[in-house]
Amino acid sequence: MMRKSGVPGLRLLVHVLAILPFLWLIWQFSQGQLTANPIRELQLRTGKYTLNLLVLTLACTILYHLFGFERALQLRRILGLYTFVYASLHLLNFIGLDYGFNLALLREDFVEKRFILAGLAAFLVLFALAVTSTEGWKRRLGKNWKRLHRAIYAAAGLAVLHFIWQVKSAADLGEPLVYAGIIALLLIFRIPGVNGLPARISVSLRSKRPRKVRRAYDSEHFD
Amino acid sequence: MAERDSAEITPWHVYASRRSFLAGIGAMVASALLPACLGRDSQVTQESDFCKSARANAAGDELGARLTSCEDITSYNNFYEFSFEKHDVASLAADFKTSPWTVAVGGLVERSNTYSVDDLIGKFPQEERVYRMRCVEGWSMVVPWLGFPLSSLLQEVRPTTGARYVRFEGLLDPAQMPGQRTRSFDWPYVEGLRLDEAMHPLTILATGLYGQPLPPQDGAPVRLVAPWKYGFKSIKSIVKIDLVEEMPVTFWMAASPTEYGFYANVNPDVPHPRWSQASERRIGELARRETLPFNGYGSEVAHLYAGMDLRKFF
Q1: In a domain, A1, yes or no
Q2: Beta-ladder partners of B60
Q3: Structural domain containing residue A177
Q4: Do A112 and B284 touch (CB under 8 A)?
């Protein structure tokens, strides 16, 4: 049903766009453009990129539901995996570059700081999803695969909590709250009852494509 | 072990020269790689006019740490009056008007007075003080300030017997300070010290750094520096100093009383919900350093807090 060869150009574009921020970061790092505290800046920027990718991953589902845009489903896995890659860079930078793998200091911070716990929990969810993202795991898990991968919303919630808990004051809350708002909006469409709505609207708007929407909507793979 | 063995069987000068040769290679490799890793390539980073004429008598602090570069001190600033982003402050503050400028000293004093910055510089000899600056956010610098002891000024205005605290106020000017246009904070910036802290010889009013008048982003034209406290205590661009009886409510106490206390002494044993207070990153260095109680000034200031529970009075 999902033809992998369908849109190589689009997939290539997504790969390039997902890798570009990383290359840009490396370039700025090498040029001394990441402030006087580059490790801190790397931490903030990889975190931001992770959240952006997470939002884009979730948006794929909605694009599909709203517009019957099937290609979005092919891109969703790629974006999801890049989300995990950037989350890993974020965590590695923290543990390695920032803390120099100093376990005593790390343990203290992990126990002491709730924003770190929230971030770690989000990472563990993303890790589980990345590992089980292959076709093999999809087959093996059957119906449970879909249930498991709904945990991406938990990861998104935890990631935003991680962001909110590390801002310095109410003045800095704007940005994490924007992310929270977008994710909440994307989640609303998944609530039973609400989630059929865009598809139905889409169907009535595009009466030519009812079967396509219906068919994919029933599919295990595409939810 | 191995090093000692080879020193024993090799004539000392050969051994020493081999070691210095190896050290030289190591330094060469490091100097080639580290600037790229740390983003410290002087060929790429543009030097500001201020830093072109930077000069300091000392090369580092009394613990052997080197001065933080002028570029870093003048480009990475927590100065919420201008921006919440540390790297944006310098450009936003570039046109900040610091002259004419007066500091009104009053409250519970016998001789309240208003001083121009030139008065202060003329009256009190400026001296270089190399202090560690530990930000509550877990980073630190070593800064060669120019300034004079706050006690000199306080002695001149003569606090009355009722005076127990010193309250400092920063400039309120939203037209010049874009950060003050946000309503999330109670402007102007307010800070305070207990009178004995204010009279302590380590406490200075700084008017310059790296041998020149303070640049706007570092708190021009006059700021407080109390090096054993977190950086936010060292209020910038001061316009008013009052001797008072009650403990002042400071800017950060008002913003978040559970996170920021009045004393704000650097203390690795009092955790913060977001930043490590057990360790810190010295700007310009790769590895973290252990944070020292009272930022390494304990032998000079710990007696001020004898008998106090510093976990409670954080």
Answers
A1: no
A2: B66
A3: 8-218
A4: no
